[in-house]
Design the sequence.
């Protein structure tokens, strides 16, 4: 949603720049047309009038150049912003994966603790296999808890 809003704003900025470029180009063409007509009719009678036309053309060229620079800067900023958003999105995905892995480990610990609790309540401590199973579960719980702790703090 926020991405669409940013994209729409960029499109509006580019559209405004394009419109301004078209207006400047139209003005440049008008001045050139006026200059050609005046020269053909011999209306430009002195250097002052000729310099005034040239000055107007130069101002339009400068404005066009400035607008192009601004357009390029906006485009560069948009590309930088897009890159930053992509990096943030990538970080967010990585964090989500880490959280999912932590939740999976927490669930695994709870399952092992539940199994250990059931075995301990059975109370058959004379059977060597039951004792081995209890020790194995305790070690697995401890190892998984250590791995979880390392994931959370590392």
Sequence:
């Amino acid at each position: 949603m926020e991405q669409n809003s940013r994209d729409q704003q960029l499109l509006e900025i580019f559209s405004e720049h394009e419109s301004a470029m078209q207006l400047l180009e139209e003005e440049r063409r008008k001045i050139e047309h006026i200059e050609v007509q005046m020269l053909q009719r011999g209306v430009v009678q002195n250097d002052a009038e000729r310099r005034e036309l040239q000055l107007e053309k130069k101002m339009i060229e400068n404005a066009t150049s400035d607008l192009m620079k601004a357009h390029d800067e906006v485009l560069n900023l948009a590309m930088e912003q897009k890159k930053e958003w992509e990096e943030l999105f990538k970080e967010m995905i990585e964090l989500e994966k880490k959280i999912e892995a932590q939740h999976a480990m927490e669930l695994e610990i709870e399952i092992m603790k539940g199994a250990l609790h059931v075995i301990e309540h059975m109370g058959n401590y004379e059977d060597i296999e039951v004792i081995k199973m209890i020790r194995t579960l305790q070690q697995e719980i401890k190892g998984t808890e250590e791995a979880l702790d390392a994931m959370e703090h590392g």
